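USER:
Before I trust my own judgement here, I would like a peer's view. Write it directly below this note and I will take it from there.

ASSISTANT:
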Amino acid sequence: MFIRKSLAVAALAVMAAPAAVHAQATEPYISEVIIVPYNFCPRGYTDTNGQLFAIAQNTALFSLVGTFYGGNGQTTFAVPDLRGRTIINVGSGPGLTTRVIGEQSGATSVTLTTANLPPHTHTAAMRATVETADSSDPAGKTIATTVNGKRFYSTTAPNVDMRAGDITVSATGQGTAIQKTSPSLAIRHCIATQGVFPPRD
């Protein structure tokens, strides 16, 4: 009987061992960020929405994220705020500016100014001809220098500039901001507030 009970206990221990290993393997690292397709964060996680946490109640999480994402560093700290933002890596690359952890950059829209436009000018010139008028129909004609009866226009190509002050160039445009947002899909990001403290190599 004793041998039979011992074998049963041993069998149960063998069966339970994989479950224990699996549970330990799936326990998240504290501050780990996951993406979920549903409308809530799992137990042990919280939304990455920039909310403030008390350091006293979340010492492990604070020791990892510090004040990279906000907080006063004495009583509070913040988790990352990923709402409406794209995640990029820290550091620098060829032709790229350096990015430090927690740095925010970019904008969803921009309003262009003259400083953003290529150098250019807006001019207008009105030309006439020194020839005598030979038409009363202005369509496709040039203003003539010499009026001929009721004729004010000439079929001759323009060959002289009129005074520049006779023409006014008006400004245009409304200064409406240009949207810069790329096509995107909103999906929930959650940060682990409980779990295993991540080891450092």
The domain at 30-84+186-201 is CATH 3.90.1340 (heat- and protease-stable fragment of the bacteriophage t4 short fibre, domain 3). The first strand starts at residue 33 and ends at 36.
